[in-house]
Amino acid sequence: MSARIGTLQGVRRKVVHATLYEAIAVAVVTVAVMLFTDKGLAHAGSLALATSVAAVSWNMVFNALFEAWERRQADRTRTVRRRVAHAIGFEGGLVLLTVPLIAWWLDMSWWAALVADIGLVVFFLFYTFCFNWVFDHVFGLPASAAPSP
How far, in Å, CA of 109 to CA of 71, rounded? Predict the structure, then answer.
């Protein structure tokens, strides 16, 4: 018996993926900000939600670009190498969006915000890889990763 719930495609897949991914991310970021700063739940949670909006927006753009690239590949297999490249590309772009936000929100230098964000990036690189792997196994691969006819 397969552990797969069903195959999601198109916009529905993107919405389910982003919602699950971000719900977990908001919880992690809120707790991390509370642990490593003197900010309370409301301030930490607000920052987590703001970074989540940035992440969801970037997620939609990045995955559309990634899947467009993937469709043009002769071999569409989602190998470990391809998943690592996906995670690094996503997180690298997200850093460019979130460092200024973190610096402003927590009233810290860009350098301090970058250091804080790097800590989150290390976690999120592994989280992104694992989340996507599990998501694909539970919900099936998107059409862009299906074998060529």
Answer: 41
- pLDDT tens across 115-129, in order? 988 888 888 778 888
* Alpha-helix runs per DSSP H in the chain: 10-36, 41-71, 80-105, 110-139
**The pLDDT of residue 4 is above 60:** no
CA proximity to 83, closest of 20, 123, 139, 129: 129
Q: List the domain range (segments joined by +) for residue 75.
A: 10-140
pLDDT over 80 (residue 135): yes
Confirm whether 149 is domain-assigned: no
Span 100-116, pLDDT tens digits? 999 999 999 999 999 98
Per DSSP, the three-state class of 37 is: coil
Query: Are 137 and 2 spatial neighbours (Cβ–Cβ below 8 Å)?
Result: no
Of 69, 76, 98, 86, nearest to 129 (Cα)? 86
- 4 located within any domain: no
pLDDT the model gives residue 18: 83
**Measured between alpha carbons, how far is 144 from 141 in angstroms, rounded to an integer?**
8
Q: How far apart are the first and last CA of the chain?
A: 26
